[in-house]
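User: Modeling request: complex.
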Amino acid sequence: MIQIAVMGYGTVGSGVVEVIEKNKEMVNKKSAQELNVKYILDLREFPGDPYEDKVIHDVNRIMEDDEVTVVCETMGGLKPAYEFTKMALTRGKSVCTSNKELVAAYGPELLELAREHSCNYLFEASVGGGIPIIRPLNYSLTAEKIEAVTGILNGTTNYILSKMETEGADFDSVLRKAQEKGYAERNPEADVEGYDACRKIAILSSLMLGKHVDYRKIYTEGITKITGDDFVYAKAMGKTIKLLALSKETPQGAIAMVSPFLIDLTNPLHMVNGVFNAVCVRGNMLGDSMYYGRGAGKLPTASAVVSDVVDCARHQGKTVMCFWDREEAVLADPGQVERAFFVRAKADGREQVSRAFPGGSFVEAGRTRDCGYLTPVMKEKDFAERYAALGDAALGRIRVEG
Amino acid sequence: MIQIAVMGYGTVGSGVVEVIEKNKEMVNKKSAQELNVKYILDLREFPGDPYEDKVIHDVNRIMEDDEVTVVCETMGGLKPAYEFTKMALTRGKSVCTSNKELVAAYGPELLELAREHSCNYLFEASVGGGIPIIRPLNYSLTAEKIEAVTGILNGTTNYILSKMETEGADFDSVLRKAQEKGYAERNPEADVEGYDACRKIAILSSLMLGKHVDYRKIYTEGITKITGDDFVYAKAMGKTIKLLALSKETPQGAIAMVSPFLIDLTNPLHMVNGVFNAVCVRGNMLGDSMYYGRGAGKLPTASAVVSDVVDCARHQGKTVMCFWDREEAVLADPGQVERAFFVRAKADGREQVSRAFPGGSFVEAGRTRDCGYLTPVMKEKDFAERYAALGDAALGRIRVEG
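Assistant: Request completed. Predicted assembly structure:
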């Protein structure tokens, strides 16, 4: 029997208890033993909750109970999750988490602590919700040299962009509707500014490179400047606009970035609509493979946490392999990366734009209010300088992927 | 050091040697030890091949060499692969295979033999080429009750259907071109009649149900009767036609089937074009997740075999879990399954069709040569009877998914 403590009885934590109960037979079979939730740690009381009697408020009861061998950390945030996780791992209790902030910030340290104490720190739920992606990277694509990871890792922004595309609406109005429906937070900054996707790509990039990618050093741009007009041009080019979180080996070194991109309809990520997430992994033998599913939500995320618990049950006393060293990965200067850009400018700025980016071409979308222009492939840095020089004539610019 | 023998130096076998050599650093790191190909078993000689000196013709040299702990079976077919695999497992040598025929026919027996001798029988490469699907089912979706698995599991037929759709061409002419390009075999029966997909869905169904699904009991229909005309109607309905291999829990029991289906453009499988494969897995907590990539080819398939070798290296002396009992799964009578059907009939058969399937509707595609009709949801058995009664008026029928 595996005794489990759940720390944080919010959406994901209560989902974990629900998944273990509802899929009891399956989960116990896959673990080759019974899983039992012994404690639920939360500051709050839950009168009337079916698991009311398991709720405790003192973390030490978990830490001091030697029967508890697996802890699910579903609190989120750094404090006190970081402290509690270290306490558990130091006592040889495995920790399974959905907390992307903590994994991105302290992943290598906590993995090391787990190794030192022959237990596990697993975080399948921290990226892509219920989509298996961490385990495929660690267990499945082991014969590959991973060259690139490109993901749609935030459901809120993907929902907003999908709606802007299909309804021709502008960012603000779609955001408001998404908030009304509960698809976006009242304070949407972490999603729409790309901070959430940034933590997630930091985790995937670290696993790809085997070294620590500091999320604070990842260039991150959100979707607030994307307009309905941009989608008109995207359509005219046979493309769509997605917020991509990507990490790539380039001749200039590894790059990692979160930004809206124009992508082709042949890119498998183009069909990822609404709140769905997907991660495309390019290996040097396999080429592209893609993992797609629900990137958030109570039960999908909880399912991933419980799959980690099953993994702990299967590997008691043994630390499963995860290559993510403390050594910091050196990222290339994003300014040196080369790509094409789409520029939208005022109608009377046509000449200025074509002079600024010779060798590109105008995108014909039958519009008179503005003009759209596709630059040739050029360095980010050079583009940025010349774009800035357009001054008032410029209405927006979007990176082009591929 | 893990000493490996490769049995069968054809496309996949030579790919295995190539992947181990090219990605040596990565593969050794992920295995936490060095992998070395000691023997290559084949009937042929390979003069001038860089691994010529490893080529042997006597399987006993592998079996009698205690240093060899992992065998890659990339011979294909049942004979002598079945015998050789049993010999290896009985000696405690793990076997990693790409051989779907053998896995579908003798999977549970060989898994049992591996358990008895504390080694492993792994077959990631047998389904979906390089797409990780076996391991996600066995290791990742462990907190799910899997309710359905639906796949595009054959690249040749998917390539043909994609071409028929985009070029409006008929089956025969596209097949001929595919054969010229090497995308289809000179004897294409195993692909176009669905036999290849049938073996693969038998394997996935068995893993889903934990019991043995006999591939000979899976209803299997190929794509030879699909015409360019069908795609005109598919488009008018906002659908496309795919050869699906599926396995589902239904109120009538589990069903498994290979057949062309009309699917909606909202189905994530609709965008799987050309030689790509994908598997959509529905879990009771996670909902739909999808795994997409190259379903065939030398290096992708070899990469999957090598990932199995890495798994063996990580679990020496230990059998990793795989739930696939010898007990045969009871499949429901396919005739009792309910769904809608698309019927194409002669233009003067309109009245006959609408009388045969009351409650359906004609599909307007601006055609005069024939007519298209969508039946209401009905039992397969009832449909088959009434469709047969249409006689010469009927030109074809396709199942509708979802």
